[in-house]
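It is worth pausing here to work through a concrete case rather than discussing structure prediction in the abstract. The textbook approach is simple: state the sequence, then state the predicted structure, then interpret. We follow exactly that order.
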Amino acid sequence: MGIGVIAAMLLGGSRVIPRHGKRWTTGLGVWIMIFAFSGLALSAFSEASSGLPVLILAIGAGAGFFTVGGVALMMDMTSTAQTGLFVGAWTLVQALAKGPTAIVGGALQTWFTRTGASPAMAYGGVFLVEAAGLLLSLVLLRKVAVVEFKRSVEPENIAMLEMLGS
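Step two, the predicted structure:
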């Protein structure tokens, strides 16, 4: 997974963002993770483990593209005077989200098991919930509006942003 994250961050930052943009790169990462988590669910439901290394690599790659695209997009949505505050808030939100998501994932797996699912089926159910959450994030990503944000915070940066195609 770590190899996928690093490789995708390098590729995303050096090749994909310059060619396709930050939002596209972020969305690519989300789509890769949706397919990978769906694949993990199918693997769990069928109790087949042969594809797990590729799926775990894909989760890492999706996370890498998502991270590099999302951080670059977030940096566009900072005011010059408050860049440190925005970057710090982004980092804090991500760090604080990891604990509750791990707890909810574990609680869902336990609930699925207690309602009669086998452990494999329970994990498959959790992976499907994760894929559904990622689909929701695509809806939210479409609502990110860098130019509108900059217009409200720093109107003088609009012309530059429109030239850069953010």
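Step three, interpretation. Residues 2-164 form a domain with the Growth Hormone; Chain: A; fold (CATH 1.20.1250.20). The first helix runs from residue 2 to 20.
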